[in-house]
Design goal:
pectinesterase activity, globular, 205 residues, six-stranded parallel beta sheet, Pectinesterase, hydrolase, Pectin_lyas_fold, 2 helices, mainly beta, Pectate Lyase C-like, secreted
Length: 205
């Protein structure tokens, strides 16, 4: 378990990850702001628990795959803040995860949660087959800040999102809803490389 108990107010990282071919299985990551820094290299996070509120899965140059996790929302904010700064190979791909309201979540969270916002102008985040029961904002995706939107080159994409948290969604123009064939292009292989079977524990897939 990786736990940063600082709480709201500033960055408080639970795990800072710069490694390649790193697999974290059935692990717990607990924080509030900037919980999991997936900043460089290729990483998989499988069948674990990741909790936070503000930009709590973030990084600049990392390529990461998140599969079969429960993602806990502890307050208003953004699950991801991709800081991708150019059209490189990096991405965050999420497949078959659940996004829930964490135990003891801050009051006033309803309607103030998003899949992500762009820390970098080339942010690339894909959510597939996500069941969302946390109380998301109807837009689902957010700009960085008003007047500093950073959305001109982002790929914020979803396929087969379901659950009460995404009911009645009204996505902004910079968000993409993928078809089944388009979604098939985003996978563990696209995220961390076609050689993933040589280093990922298949029992967690």
């Amino acid at each position: 378990m990786y736990n940063n108990t600082y709480g709201p107010g500033t960055q408080a990282v639970a795990l800072s990850q710069y490694g390649s071919r790193v697999g974290l299985y059935a692990c717990g990551f607990y924080g509030y702001q900037d919980t999991l820094y997936a900043n460089e290299g290729t990483q998989v996070y499988l069948k674990g628990y990741i909790q936070g509120a503000t930009d709590f899965i973030f990084g600049r140059r990392g390529s990461a795959f998140f599969g079969g996790n429960t993602i806990g929302i502890s307050g208003p904010g953004w699950v991801t803040a991709s800081g991708r700064e150019s059209n490189d190979a990096g991405s965050y791909v999420f497949d078959n995860n659940k996004i829930v309201l964490a135990f003891g979540a801050a009051s006033g969270t309803d309607g103030k949660v998003y899949f992500g916002r762009p820390w970098g102008a080339y942010a690339k985040v894909i959510f597939k087959n996500t069941v969302v029961t946390a109380p998301f904002n109807k837009a689902l995706w957010s700009v960085w800040n008003s007047g500093d939107e950073r959305t001109s080159n982002v790929l914020f994409a979803e396929y087969n999102s379901s659950g009460s948290g995404v009911s009645g969604a009204s996505r902004p123009g910079f968000a993409t809803v993928l078809t089944a064939s388009q979604a098939a292009a985003y996978s563990i292989s696209s995220a961390v490389g076609s050689d993933y079977a040589s280093w990922v524990d298949a029992s967690y897939l």
